[in-house]
Amino acid sequence: MTQQPIQVIGGGLAGTEAAWQIAQAGVPVILHEMRPKRFSPAHHTENLAELVCSNSFGAMASDRAAGLLHEELRQLGSIIISKADEHAVPAGGALAVDRGKFGEDLTCTLANHPLIDFRRGEVHNIPQGIVVLASGPLTSPELSADLQRFTGLEYLNFFDAASPIILGDSINKDIAFMASRYDKGEAAYLNCPMNKEQYLQFYAALCQAEQTELKDFEKETAKFFEACLPIEEMARRGEDTMRYGPLKPVGLSDPRTGDRNYAVVQLRQEDKAGQLWNMVGFQTNLRWGEQKRVFQMIPGLEKAEFVRLGVMHRNTFLNAPQLMLPTLQFKQRENLLAAGQLIGTEGYTAASAGGWLAGTNAARIALGKTPLILPNTTMMGALFEFISSAEPKHFQPMAPNFGIVPDLGVRIKSKPEKYGRYRDRSLTDLETWKQTAYIRLAEKVENKLDEN
């Protein structure tokens, strides 16, 4: 009997990972991506898995929440983390990628898989059969309306923003210096130093700069996500707020003088050639002309050429605790699964993890197997348990963090030791789970590919 293809809607990180895992299990899949026929407010390319904000997947160290999630996904054969490792660029202790090559490689890899039918075009309604929804926080209005009809619930929402990207040759290297905070890893950041006078002038200009006007319906529900706060909103919270946030000078000494500055703006490398640099923490909703005017006040950026200016957009997400199981199936339709920011996970790696689980479980359903639940002692398992069991009334997007994993049962004062213990337990439990609960969907994928 011919296997009916699973449909994956959305070619972001979650959808790309889901489609790959389904195909690797020997099950045919149709991957729908509306670009380039229709672009969201945040996308700029036609590539799968486009990174619309930062090019960083977060800390690499496995005793950090993001780094632990990276390692769990490596052990589970994630295509996203594999390609991120392959296209990594220097970023101190973070896993950052050349976003252009990363997206191009993934697009080519999936388009050439014999079991992936890659279709460019918009999906207006949730299809029948086994489906993975990975359309993201900027789901098209038509599909969003159909999903709202299906769930019977209003969407939740928050505002997200992206940072500007600067041409490397336009940065004054006589002022900006290369260093990583606390000299961790190789010197991977360009740092623009400010003395007190320069900082206060910049702070005043930022607070007074003109923002892009929100639409009337957006003003009524305007709410920022704290992990991606616009820099001008941060400035308005107090004179020193930025200095304790993205502009903090702690751990950054100018190697030319040994001095620590009053504030420091960091730029992170975007591509392997070092031609593009991202303004770290400078998500913004300022008008484009204002961005150039105010950001060129930063020492070293006086003649900065912006290849992309900052943007802000409204993101929507579902009230997952009311709708989802920890398998990422919908409670009211178990052959419909979802992953990514749409269900309230936050960050690139969390979206990839959701894609892995939703894709794996969609394939298991197609093959008549029981969907999987990851151990809650792993970062992946804890995250999906949280979004499916949190208090619905106060549900907000959740990023990977050690606060959601079960306690160790012993008191450990040292944070590095405590987080190391979390890591060790997670990776041990994941390996045990792989050997017992996680049964390979196709022992010989090559045979499945031949059959199809």
Short description:
With 452 residues, the protein is of the alpha+beta class. The protein is built from 14 helices and 17 strands. Strands 6-2-1-7-17-16 form a 6-stranded mixed β-sheet, with helices on one face. Strands 10-11-12-13-9-14 form a 6-stranded antiparallel β-sheet.
What is the helix fraction of residues, given as a range? 25-40%
- List the strand order in the largest sheet: 6-2-1-7-17-16
Largest sheet: 6 strands, mixed
Give the overall shape, derived from the CA principal axes. globular
Instruction: Write down the CATH topology of the largest domain.
Output: FAD/NAD(P)-binding domain
In DSSP terms (H or I, runs of 4 or more residues), the helix count works out at 14
Question: CATH class of the largest domain, anyone?
Answer: Alpha Beta
Structural class: alpha+beta
- How many domains make up the 3D coordinates? 2
SS elements, strand count: 17
Helix-strand layout with pairing:
Blueprint: E1 6-9, H1 13-24, E2 29-33, E3 56-59, H2 65-75, H3 79-86, E4 88-89, E5 94-97, H4 99-111, E6 116-120, E7 131-133, H5 141-151, E8 156-162, E9 165-167, E10 177-179, E11 189-194, H6 196-208, H7 216-221, H8 231-235, E12 263-269, E13 276-279, H9 288-295, E14 306-308, E15 311-317, H10 320-323, E16 329-330, E17 333-338, H11 348-366, H12 379-389, H13 415-436, H14 445-451
Parallel strand pairs: 1-2, 1-7, 2-6, 7-17
Antiparallel strand pairs: 3-5, 4-5, 8-15, 9-13, 9-14, 10-11, 11-12, 12-13, 16-17
Helix pairs in contact: 1-11, 2-11, 2-13
